[in-house]
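Continuing the series of single-chain predictions for the mutant panel. This is the parent chain; the variants come on the following pages.
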Amino acid sequence: MACVYIPVQNSEEEVRVVVDQLPRDASDILDILKAEQAPLDLWLIIAREYFKQGKVEQFRQILEEGSSPEIDEYYADVRYERIAILNALGAYYSYLGKIETKQREKEEHFIMATQYYNKASRIDMHEPSTWVGKGQLLLAKGDVEQAFAAFKIVLDGDVDNVSALLGQACVQFSRGRYSDSLELYKRALQVYPQCPGAVRLGIGLCRYKLGQYEKAKQAFQRVLQLDPENVEALVALGILDLQTNDASGIRRGMKKMQRAFEMYPYCALSLNYLANHFFFTGQHFLVEQLTETALAVTNHGPTKSHSYYNLARSYHSKGDYEKAGLYYMASVKEINKPQEFVLPYYGLGQVQLKLGDFRSSLSNFEKVLEVYPENCETLKTLGHIYIQLGQTEMAQEFLKKATKIDPRDAQAFLDLGELLISTDAGAALEAFRTARGLLEKGHEEVPLELLNNIGVLHFEKGEFELAEQTFVEALGHGIWHTLIDDKAQPYPIDASSSIHQYRDMQLFHRLEEDGFIVEVPWNKISILFNLARLFEQLHNIERASILYRLILFKYPDYIDVYLRLAAIAKARNNVQISIELITDALKVDDKCPNALLMLGDLELKNDDWVKAKDTFRAAKDASTGKDSYATLCLGNWNYFAAVRSEKRAPKLEATHLEKAKELYTKVLIDHNTNLYAANGAGVVLAEKGQFDVSKDLFTEVQEAASGSVFVQMPDVWINVAHVYFAQGNFPLAVKMYQNCLRKFYYCTDSQILLYLARTHYEAEQWQDCKKTLLRAIHLAPSNYTLKFDAGVAMQKFSASTLQKQKRTVDEVRSTVSELKNAVRVFSQLSAASNLQFHGFDEKKIETHVNYCKHLLEAAKVHYEAAEREEQQNKQRIELARQVALAEEARRKAEEQRKFQMERRKQEDEIKQVMRQEEHLERLKEQWKSTTPGSKRKDRSHFEDGVGGHNERRKKGQKRRKRDRGSKLRYETDEAEADIMDDHEEMEDEDANTNYREPFNQTNDLEDEGEENAQDLLAAAGLEDSDAEDDMAAAPSNSIRQKRAWSESDDDEPQQRQPQSSPNGDNSAEMQLSDGEVGEDYDKLNGGDAADDDEDD
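Parent structure:
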């Protein structure tokens, strides 16, 4: 049993005070301490024991008495104990201020703590414990930086001060520097290993923040080993178990939380986790109790924020959005910035979105996006908020960002597609396709709504086959397959009778009797209706009507089906049946605006003006004046009333037109994209003569209507053409009428053909007018007005042709034919007018007939004149043709003659060249066949015959060489003489050459014999030197002789020059050939000379 001994003054006795039996009234102990003047450390020990026993008031009473001025004055020399008492009081008030929830009381406690710490500092400003206390006070107040400075002052003086180390570790943890905090905790533990378990709790928290969960778990377990009653460590282990996200871990974690609650039922952290668990189990009563308790026992901002959040979630899930919003707002106020705890902002944004406060909701979700910029749920929610605010571009931006961040989020693509469906059908279709692909890839069921949207978008784009496939896929198996499949239909279905027998449901009863299941699920009605609408668009009325009747068989109150069947009947001009169908629709809902408007339109078509006006007003009243179509129909009624074919009253007409304009303008003010109202306004402006403005309006409407399959507005095309016609721009009017016919009516509308014929008529294109009217008559053979117009067109064509200054026979002939046709047409119309079938004026028709006959008489004269003129033209043309043919024949003959002469000249040149080449070849062959010895022999005989006086020279080897050279020169001269003889032969063509050739041949033979003889002597070694000298002298004599001959020959041409030579034209060519031969000779001589050099 622990005791405290108080020494008795002036005695050795002591007063023993049992610690466990301290008196309830601290005054008794204080009297003893004062009476015995006990040391101040005993005061502090007893006060601490009171504090441990939970007797906080006694603790405070003893310490305040110990720090009173009297005690300070008495114990003036005792410094440490006085400082210790003051620091204990400062720590006590710091703790009170920390746990206080009311701000005013909190500040008062902090002020008291500050006063005690300042008083202690006045005793000794360097006392470390005082600075540690100040640091703890500053940390409790949230002044982290000054707290760090206070702890640093202590550590500068004593680096191993455990309290300062722990305080600085807390500061670093508050800063978020968990690594530094961990190091300080470790250092404190190294300095003082006997630290309480709470120090290791700090280590575990640092490890947890650093993501070192296993080491954190070990630290918390060590804390429990040292202090099994440590609630914070138990809660921390429970949190670690809950974060495993598996069933066993969650079960272990909740057990630890429950144990912590049993140990200390006022731990706010464990209360919040328990409340979170019971929220997911649906036990909202427990959630509210636990969170309210947590709020009562804590003043820690983040903890209170979690408590408010749990409470707000509970009310949110129960649908109490106002209370949920209040608690979400309280949770947000307890935190400084969204990064600390962002979930309350998300919940508050959801509640505000539900309550319709879009601006506030947008602000909260944007704060969530600041913390998690790539959170797809937040991006999608922001997209929806911007849609509600009308900022579609921002909505598209957020939804597209969500699809980029998570391209596997099918819901994001669905939301994006729904947003784009009204602005960009192509992008919407692509988004829906992507969503469908993701769902199918993830083996998830594709919603019917998604398939229906895809089918409708294909329908709008005109991709009817894809739309049909999508609708059929969405419908799945059912009776509709049997009804729309031609091969599988059990009974024949007549398309024409399907409209008349729309009330007849015997077909479906027969199917049920035959064992077919005739069922249409409620979630497939819209898809089945859209499929029927698709068949209607494809003009497959049989399938469309049978599906419409199937819907009526199972759901007889489906008004849209009645209206579509009525529209089909109206398109077939079955106005009465259409009215009956609309009447059935009105039996289901007598105030249905669409049914009333259709009925009024039909009544207007039946020329029942009063009823139509009443019906349109009833439709407007049924829609409380908000139905723009009802207002539009009233505008149409006023327009038609203004332009009725009956006798018009100008004032009444102007009144109706102004009223129609007013109604059209009202619709455009409410709905500035209403194409029909804009078209009506353009029509009124055109009626008033404002063609430019009306044309601009019609053009804009035409461009806007061309992008949708569902908006078919041929009227605006016709109106544009009418404006062009009124302005006199007939080519553009014709083009517009033709485009309208092709695009909307497949060239089968007789009324538009009549408009087109009128345009051709005004443009004086009579034949085009007649052709167009004949097409219209083919489509509407009972329309006698078209026949009358055709007769007028033929009459006008004939009159205009006869009025020409120059006419061809063909034109006059066609005019006569047209006049006969016109007479026949008018005669038929005259007969019809006698029967009073069509109301034509007989006198007027007779006038036309007489006029046509008059033109026929006039045409005969024109015809004869045209024939005469044509005959003359033919004769002139024939004469001109004959002249042209003769000129062409002469030109061709001249070209042929020139060609023959040129060809003959080319042939002569070719023959001459060939003769020269043959002669040259012959000479070459002669040279090859002639040997050197025979040539020398011929020359010696020749020189001897002429009596040449050659002197012999007796020399050795040099003489032989000279002989060889002279022999070559002789051969050259002889070849030149032969060439000259050839020229003379070609020029004179006489017999001299024939005489010279045998002589040359004889000389050649003699030379050859002499060479052979000399060769034989040389071979025997009996060569005659004199003979060699003779041979050497022979060439020189020969050369001189030839020179003399050449000089005599040169004189001869000069004497003959005045005489004409028949071969003079060929002299140049012959000289050229001589030159060529001379070159060949030179080449041969050069070759021989080279051979001689080699022999030397």
